[in-house]
Amino acid sequence: MSKPGPQNYGIPPPAYSETENLQEPLPTEPPVVFGPDPMNLICIACGNRTITDVRTTPNNRTHMIAMLLCIIGGLLCAWIPYCYKPCMTSRHYCSICNAYLGQYSD
Question: What are the sequence ranges of the domains in the chain?
């Protein structure tokens, strides 16, 4: 292995604008914004284009509203938030591989 000779010490390195191997940044897709309804997208787990399977589940807000309605209106009103879709969290799953993709809360 040979070391560079003294003749190379006086030459400055090329400026950044002179470099030839510049790489373009890879294009990125915007993040998916989930909604309350099924969506058509490409699954990040299996790579297939699919329409998501949406499952609604109660969240903390659902339980708090039910407790508030129970205190104000009695037990007969406590079930209402569990039947009202905007009080629930919509979880999106791939309809092919069943992978969790994201969620939406109102």
Answer: 35-105
